[in-house]
């Protein structure tokens, strides 16, 4: 059986940088290390870090209790309020926000200051989007849109200037569709497609492979938004697409009597897991 592994599968630059930062901090053993939220959507890595003494804190309240150590900000980034809280409380921190996300913070900050209504195309409950929202100077002038219905309903009174950005891991095609709907409303619109290159390449490669194979395996954490999107893209091209977190989830019976299988993985999937899946699929068939 032919096995095609996507070259773009696994850690992207921003995730690798954030994970390496936490491991480096933990190895320095200069006091407690905290991450604000799990460093990546991958239980294995989070558990491994926990064994090295790295603690996950989830809320601003819990952050206040981190004065005895160093907080690592993950690649998703955080709102301006979180930076203010860390500074006010005198808490040491290392910022591993991905530079591509940081760029969106700057855009939102600038355009909201200039009086634009900011539209973020993305999932409102995703930490990256929550962080991006937190850089707008006017919360009532900020809208998060993820679906067609929301884009259709979008309407603003008085002001006509709109700045549209995107969550870095949003589906490129869907972003364009939603922008088109908003563009028809006649506002003065600035569109900044901030979907990151790594995501676009990963999605395009996954789509291409899925269209050529009999079965497709998408590996990643269940809560990983970019892996979910990869799964949706692959499923459209290849009905026999499965979403697994680790090798244990793989149902080999689904791969019987097929000639080719493709493998891709989300940005938070460690290489170890991808290699394990690839090796076992090759050995099994
Ligand atoms: S997907 Fe892109 S924006 Fe997000 S962490 Fe990776 S490199 Fe950065």
Tell me what the structure shows:
The protein is an alpha/beta fold and 285 residues long. 42% of the residues lie in helices and 20% in strands. Helix 6 links the parallel strand 6 and strand 7 (142-145). Helix 5 runs parallel beside helix 6 (127-133) and helix 9 packs parallel to helix 10 (225-237). The termini are close together. The site of iron/sulfur cluster has 14 residues, from helix 1, helix 5 and helix 9.
List the topology elements.
Blueprint: E1 2-5, H1 13-28, E2 32-36, H2 43-51, E3 54-57, H3 60-63, E4 69-73, H4 80-88, E5 92-95, H5 99-113, E6 117-121, H6 127-133, E7 142-145, H7 148-153, E8 161-166, H8 172-183, E9 188-191, H9 197-212, E10 215-219, H10 225-237, E11 241-244, E12 260-265, H11 271-284
Parallel strand pairs: 1-12, 2-3, 2-4, 4-5, 6-7, 6-8, 8-9, 10-11, 10-12
Helix pairs in contact: 5-6, 9-10
Iron/sulfur cluster binds at residues 12-15, 75, 98, 100-101, 168-169, 196, 198-199, 267.
* Main sheet record: 4 strands, parallel
Q: Tally the helices.
A: 11
Major sheet strand order = 1-12-10-11
**Tally of strands:** 12
SS-derived structural category: alpha/beta
> What is the string of SSEs from the N terminus onward?
EHEHEHEHEHEHEHEHEHEHEEH
Q: Proportion of β residues?
A: 15-25%
Low-pLDDT residue spans = none
Report how far apart the termini are.
6 Å
Heteromolecules bound: iron/sulfur cluster
Overall pLDDT, averaged?
Answer: 93
Helix content: 40-55%
> How many whole angstroms does the radius of gyration measure?
20 Å
Form type: flat
